[in-house]
């Protein structure tokens, strides 16, 4: 029997649901024939929540109870929301604090998960109505840039809506599936997604029926709306606001600009007018005005190719996603850069939902999945804090997931029985420049000298991009584990900034890292010598003691103000001048051991 499963594109502006209908997978319409469900929810005291265009109609007259673009709220703190969206018309529930923002509505307090669940429920109802049966599962798409917190909240929303999540799928991967590119033997695919406010580029590789995401990039602050602003600015230079309030004037300019932009997608030139003023705008002029925006999209493509060490000739197909890819100027720029026309047969608004629907159909078991395995990539490196507040990357950015990777660590201090683990995400060398994901501890490590314990830390990222970290002390098998739970710390628009910052600071970061490492090495040696002097200081001649003290003082100074080379040189010198002392101590302890005292006991006094 045919089992019912749907693909859902839970979008910022609009959401869609798609499912197998006969031979193909299609997006499903509502009773009025609309496929796009505006991602807007209106709450009132008396009636159940309105979702979609009816809710959208209340945006102006009841803005405080009408939530739009809730996708931008997932996994965010209140501070981040306020920073990103200057004029939020909502009252946030003070009792929830900063980390879990929730909106006070006429129907009670609603958090982003509940609001997203209302949208998902509406889509599920539509699907059950169209398909005349009950759903067994859904594939829900998320932007490639979504972090763990955002992915987890998307899952939570589905669960709240009573949907079984078969899998979260990256939007670009879904788009490539919609074009059936997986049935090719092999090839490289660029997915170019330019929406209203965000831009994503993904590079996928297909090998023997297996999709793999090689690299992702983008700009969370670039979209079709910027083209509207450019046009509005151009009009503003030729106009004066007259008697209208500035806000109204600006809003009208944007409206005219948006309409003109859309018209230019089907016509060569448009007539713009405002009051007495009018002007003609052709595609060429529009391309000139928008040239900076267009180059930014192409530069991102270039960066993604570079990340994967590929060149434009390696790209076999380009898939277009998002309403803004209807702009001929964009299509032309893409065709020119890649020397190849992009694929555009499928409606760029529906392509993601259709791909998710195809994947859902496979996962629910209506089609053999043997030759259809999708892999994704993690967008930022995952790692662990080590001594000196440095980051050790365990899973580098753009690694294909699911993946498990492990690395051995050890204790830093003698007799250390607890190890604190700090899981971080980002590209920079210092913990302070990365994003903190989680902290946990491994306890009951048997007391040993520094560096003797073996602690294996493994990172596992599952197919949905969720992370579990395990730390295990190998001699006892003592384990500690953490699932990275939503840590509402990241502004997802910061991801591209993080990548840019790591690029800009690569040189400085490397030097900082080598200084920190040199400092650590020096600190360990100084500490070891100091505790040895406390125990066996008597073995030292005054002369020797002075020499060692001298080098330690010079090294201490160098550690605070010199570069890594000088610290290394002085550490070596300290090793040299204390070499004799170390040898004498060894002799002494061996003699003591032979007299029946264990070395360990001696070490501990
Ligand atoms: P999002 O993914 O951000 O929700 P969409 O993919 O729906 O956004 O794209 C919305 C953007 O697409 C808007 O900026 C809109 O102006 C633009 N757009 C839609 N249709 C056209 C068109 N025919 N020509 C140019 N831009 C278009
Ligand atoms: Mg989109």
Write the layout of secondary structure elements.
Layout: E1 5-9, E2 14-21, E3 24-27, E4 37-38, E5 40-42, E6 50-51, H1 53-56, E7 66-68, H2 78-84, E8 103-105, E9 108-110, H3 112-131, E10 137-142, H4 148-160, E11 165-170, H5 171-178, E12 186-194, E13 199-207, E14 210-219, H6 224-236, H7 246-264, E15 269-274, E16 277-282, H8 283-289, H9 291-307, E17 317-321, H10 328-338, H11 351-363, E18 373-374, E19 376-377, E20 382-386, E21 390-395, E22 400-401, E23 403-409, E24 419-425, E25 435-442, E26 455-461, E27 467-473, E28 478-483, H12 494-504, H13 506-536, H14 542-561, H15 564-577, H16 579-594, H17 599-604
Parallel strand pairs: 1-10, 10-11, 12-17, 14-18
Antiparallel strand pairs: 1-2, 2-3, 2-4, 5-6, 5-7, 8-9, 12-13, 13-14, 15-16, 19-22, 20-21, 20-24, 23-26, 24-25, 26-27, 27-28
